[in-house]
Structures are given as C-alpha cells and as structure tokens.
Amino acid sequence: MSKSLISRRPAFRRGASPCTDNNRQASISPLNALGWKPFFQQQLSLDELSECEPVKVMAVHRSQIEVAGDAGDEAVLVNGPLFEGAAERPTVGDWLLLERETRRPVRRLDRVSLFKRMAPGAKQAQLIAANVDNVLIVSSCNHDFNLSRVERYLALVKEAGCRACLVLTKADLDQDHEQYRNALNGYRDLPVVLVNALDAESVEPLREYCRSGETLALLGSSGVGKSTLLNNLAGTELAETGGIREDDSKGRHTTRHRALYAIPGGGLLLDSPGMRELGLADVSEGLAATFADISALAAKCRFADCAHQSEPGCAVQAAVDSGELDERRLRNWRKLEREVARNSKTLAETRADDRALGQFYRSVQSHARAHKKRVD
Ligand SMILES: Nc1nc2c(ncn2[C@@H]2O[C@H](COP(=O)(O)OP(=O)(O)O)[C@@H](O)[C@H]2O)c(=O)[nH]1
Ligand SMILES: [Mg+2]
Ligand SMILES: [Zn+2]
User: Which of 45, 187, 202, 366 has an alpha carbon within 20 to 30 A of 301's alpha carbon?
Assistant: First the structure.
C-alpha cells in the first residue's frame, strides 16, 4: 500500500480525543488512555517494537478504518485484505500494528475479548467489537424491558468475560420502578441503575464503568437511549440521537455505524446501531454461566440425561413447581441453548466449506504448476 493511501488528521472527534489535556493532566499516555495493556505489549517482537506502532481501531467504514494511537488519529484506506493473510476485517476495538514509515497495517494483535453475533440467515458471525472491558446493557422502563433479552445479552457478556451493569433508561417517564427492581431480584451479580439518560447527574454513577483506559460497550435495542447516555457521559454531543417513531415504535436508526468515542478524562465508549436480532453463536460457556442456577438444579436430577420435561425425580421441574425457578427463564434457557447449537453447527459447516474450498484451490494451483513444469 502506498503512502498516499493514508491520510493523517488531527483528532477526528474533536474535544474528545484521548490525547486531550484531560489525560495529559492525569499523565496518562495516549496509548494507555486507549486501553493499551501488557497483554498487547507482550505480543510484539523486537523487530515490531522498533519498526511498528500500535493503533486502536475506532471506527470501521466500507473503505476505510479510523484508528488512534500515539501519533493521533488517522484513517487507513482499505481495498482488499488489510494485510497479507488477513482472513477478516478488523472490528472496532481491535489493536493493529502499523509500519511506522508507510503507515501500512502489518497485523492485528490477539484480542482480550470479542463480541460477535449471528445475523438472521447468515452463514458467518458478524463481529461487533473487540477488547471491551465493561458493558452497559441498556433497556428502557417501558415495553422494551424484557428479561429474556437481558439474559441473551448476559450470555454474550459472560462469554467475553466482561463486567456488566443493567441500565434502565427513561426512569423519568415511568414511576413504577419497583416492578423492574422486583423482576431483577434474582440477578444478584448484575448491578441495576435506573436513569434519566437526558440528565447529566442521573448518569453519573455509570462513570465507574468507563474509567481511563477502559472500553465500555452499550448494548440495547434501538431507541432505548444509548446515544443519549453517551452524549451525557461525554458532556458533549458526540452521537446523533433520535426519537422513536410513534407509528411502529421501532425507533429510528440514528446511529448508523459502530464507533468508539473517547470520553474526556475517561475511557472509550462504544455506540452501535440497535441490532434487532442478536443471534448467539459460540457462547456455550457464557450461556452456562448466565443460567448457572439451572445447571446446578440439573445436577440434582435423578437421571444424568434428564431432559427436564416429565421425568421422575427432575429437580428442574420441581423448582418450577415450587416457584423457585421462573418457567419463563427455563423456556428461554432452552431456546438459547437450541439457538447456540444451531448457529455453532452453521459456523462449523461454513468453516468446513471454507477449508474444502481452500484445499480445492491449492490442488488446482499445484496441478497447474505440475503441468507448467511438464510443458517447460
Ligand atoms: N424522557 C427520556 N427520554 C429519553 C431517555 N433516554 C433517551 N431518551 C430519548 O429517546 C430517544 C432515543 O434515544 P437515543 O439515544 O437516540 O437511542 P439509541 O437508539 O439507543 O441510541 C431520544 O429522543 C432521546 O431523547 C430518558 O432517560 N428519558
Ligand atoms: Mg443511537
Ligand atoms: Zn431434570
């Protein structure tokens, strides 16, 4: 890639760059403010240490990637694979190594965490974000509030090993807060914060999730107030917000692309467009952790292969009967287990197809080479 493909610019989200005075005052290097950690540093060879520079992917567009690093913010144009052997495009939050002189991406560093989803009908998982530390699961105090959806997000968050907090927005519009608190009684390891996302003071408790050097992701349906939260935490209008369309209450998709925003004096915040379907794939452990209570009950069933339907001695059904286990929760666990199994099968088939196709190309190439040698 030639140098002309790279454009360097000053802070692309002005007033909110991690290189702003706020961080300088706290004497945090730009890289550390972006979340650079020993885990990433250890991956660099001696050559790479002298010849390359790490940058963080702040936004991914069709033909360019916005990155930030010690040198400020710049855009890397993408046409074709990002670097030799790159199987996939990087995602927001990824760390890339750029060649210092040419600003050409050399490789992507291993990730601490990765969020991905299966879009409906897709054969491959779509990457959502990498290297996220904390997650705010955002729902509003209205018909959007849905425990089964919270459990879906939790499976994803636990798989990635992130810390999560449930934020219930629009608390100013609904005064019956107790119903939400009661519904969440059983979720002891999930802190719940009710906020008016439009009010700066109200969102203050959420700052502990986006300290300097940390990356916080906002997950939730469209229209629940993710961008509003972001703007209030940043203290400036960084992301566009929009009202919910009255006719279908589906929410206008004002946030069009996924991007990381630097909070002055704090960490990075990921805002993404609402994903109507967050299909789960490769999250077996996260799912087991989210429903650990059901697994614990299942261990007490009389039969090791109990399907928890109508078998005698089923501890899971007994817990439903006694009211200890919510039947909705059991139904959702079954549904998500099936979904994970189905999507994992699709992913495994896609990988096998890709491998077979790769082998086919290699054999065609080697035949062609052998033929050429004979002709020569
Ligand atoms: N009254 C009230 N309105 C809110 C609150 N949070 C968001 N809104 C409004 O809900 C609409 C959607 O918010 P937005 O941040 O764009 O949602 P997003 O799609 O999740 O990013 C906007 O009109 C906001 O002003 C809240 O806590 N209280
Ligand atoms: Mg938004
Ligand atoms: Zn059972």
Answer: 187
